[in-house]
Amino acid sequence: MRKQHRKEKVSHLIYRLFFIFLGAFIAAVSIELLLMPNNIIDGGIIGISLMVDYVFADRIAFLNFAVVVVLLNLPFMYFGYKQIGKTFMLSTLFGVLSLAIMERILHPFEPFTTEPILATVFGGLLLGAGVGLVIRHGGSLDGTEILGILLTKRLPFSVGEFVMFFNVFIFIIAGFVFGIEQAMYSVIAYYVAFKMIDAVIQGLDETKAVLIVTDYYDEVSEAILHRLGRGTTKLKGKGGYTDAEKEVIYVVITRLEVMKLKSIIQEIDPNAFITIMNTQETKGAKFKSAIH
Fold it and tell me: In this structure, how many other beta carbons lie within 10 angstroms of the beta carbon of residue 188?
């Protein structure tokens, strides 16, 4: 029997829209009060919109950032609806319209700084925080990745590779429009924003997933539970060379607990095989309560 799709609760919808709006507002502050006054751009559709605003806004009144960023994103919203769904499309539309409206409201305000380095770093941080909030709550402010998803089905590139090539092309054009120095600042701002987006989407509570292959499963598992307060999961494994049955411990810890976990394992089984992996997100009341 096919599972029926459950409609999103109004309270959760309001919660999501609030953070999408907040993210769009933060991005607009970055664009209007830090990046744009210093001729520094981001990658993707936002970068193209900033260049169009710089070249045409004084000549053609309606070709400003707010109008261009909406017009350029509209086709990608349509394809996003086809590829990802209605909720994503509507969330993206709300986010992009919020960005455009807030940018126009902030336009008359004086910039925070005209120092390029400060504008680059803090502009990148704020832009990344804003875009990250929007993505984390189900929307987008830039259709570049949607275009990448569509084109990479026909081209021998990954989405990440396409986005990188696309942005390199934009920064080369920025070198001609703004000058080489401003293009270099723009690359730095894009990198800072990219890292900040990851931090916001993944969260600041970085966790590690650990796999432990040991002949002392019960002792190690019990020590982890009592000395770290972490529950473990038993996985069944088999040696590739010996074909012998192995018990593998799986546990999720915070980065601050890595050294203590290693110490516990070393005490019990110095020959244990340990693999530590980064995790993007960890959910579960038991895990959170163990941290606090």
Answer: 16
In this structure, are 68 and 188 located in the same domain? yes
Helix (H) or strand (E) holding 250: strand 245-254
Would you give the DSSP letter of residue 38?
G
Show the CA angle centred on residue 38, arms to residues 172 and 43, nearest 5°: 40
- Give me the residues paired with residue 234 across strands: 249
- Going by C-alpha positions, the residue among 270, 275, 268, 271 that lies closest to residue 220 is 268
DSSP H stretches of helix in the chain: 10-30, 44-56, 65-83, 86-106, 116-136, 144-151, 159-178, 180-202, 217-228, 258-268, 285-291
32, 137: one domain = yes
Say if CB 228 and CB 253 are below 8 A apart: yes
For the record, the structure tokens of 119 come out as 């504008």
Do 217 and 257 sit in the same domain of this protein? yes
What residue numbers bound the domain in which 75 lies? 10-202
3-class secondary-structure state, position 277: strand
Output the six-digit token pair for 193: 């924003």
Instruction: Return d(Cα 206, Cα 258) in angstroms, integer.
Output: 11
Helix axes 10-30, 116-136, angle to 10 degrees: 170
Per-residue pLDDT of the chain (292 residues; tens, 9 = 90+): 444 446 678 888 899 999 999 999 999 999 999 999 999 998 888 989 999 988 887 777 778 888 999 998 888 888 777 766 788 888 889 999 999 999 999 999 999 999 999 999 999 999 999 998 998 888 888 877 677 666 666 767 666 677 788 888 999 999 999 999 999 999 999 999 988 988 887 765 567 899 999 888 889 999 998 888 888 888 887 776 666 777 899 998 877 788 888 988 988 999 888 999 877 666 664 555 444 3
Q: Could you tell me if 183 and 226 lie in one domain?
A: no
Q: Name the 3-class secondary structure at 273.
A: strand
Q: What is the pTM of this model?
A: 0.74
